[in-house]
Amino acid sequence: MFDFILHVAIIAALNGLLALSLNLQLGYAGLANFGQIALFGAGAYGAALAFSWGFGPFAGLLLGLALVSLLALVFARLGRSLGADYWGIATLSIAEILRTVATNETWLTGGAQGIGGLPQLFGFDLPGTLALAAAALLATYLVLRGVTQSKFGLAVRLLREEPQLAASLGYDLAGLRRRVMLISGVPAGLCGFLYAHYVTFVGPDQLFASETFFIWAMVVIGGLANHSGAVLGAVALQILSASIPFAKDALGLTSEYVAAARLTLTGGGLLLFLLLRPQGLLPERIGSVRA
């Protein structure tokens, strides 16, 4: 049972990285990225490809971050010619295209079978893995909080609220979007790298669009434009998700209930908070740069 609790804590910490990444895009910059899982996938496949080519974890981290940066630039470039709604749809399309490529290009990605056998960074030492994931989460939290409390953070908020005013004041909107995507891509890619080495496997089934909406639910439930809220939402949803199998056993339900309940929890929680408490559990602090 203790190992299970450590596992839940590790996944919650990794999900916190994804939530912080999306929160910078969606909460602070107003960029509705529906392809967030692709940034995670770039980091994960970077680790997997480096391993399959005979390189160590450090090379996998560098390759993953390089792939994430390239994908982030592609996302940002789309924002120069597309409106917010169409940009969100385009990011979702790109994520699905990349998942399809990962599924079919067996020579590179292992296809539907994926790439397995990656080494765990701490062997099977769950406390060590948790310490690494928690350290990455804390470092990301502090860095992003510093970013959003800076003049750049104020410019990003202006991009979200009044893009035309920001442009009239001389801000380069395309440049702001590009920097937001690059900065936010790092924790997403780092999450993918750590997750790949934790579960020792990377495959296209990890990149379904439903995973992006699970990340969206974390951010919306926790609170947009609030770093603490993003982490809280990630932890809360992971605990709820981990409790589903216990509820299944207690109620005598079939195994199919687990997947359905997770989707219901994600979609239902997202809708409830959008309708009843759109500001989330920890709302943005209006008039303050501290969140």
From TrEMBL:
It is found in: Cell membrane. InterPro entries: ABC_transp_permease (IPR001851), LivM-like (IPR043428). Keywords: Cell membrane, Membrane, Transmembrane, Transmembrane helix. The chain crosses the membrane at residues 29-51, 58-78, 126-144, 180-201, 213-237. Pfam families: BPD_transp_2. It is a multi-pass membrane protein. GO terms for molecular function: branched-chain amino acid transmembrane transporter activity. CDD domains: TM_PBP1_LivM_like. The keyword Transmembrane applies. One of its GO terms (cellular component) is plasma membrane. This is Branched-chain amino acid ABC transporter permease. It comes from Enterovirga aerilata.
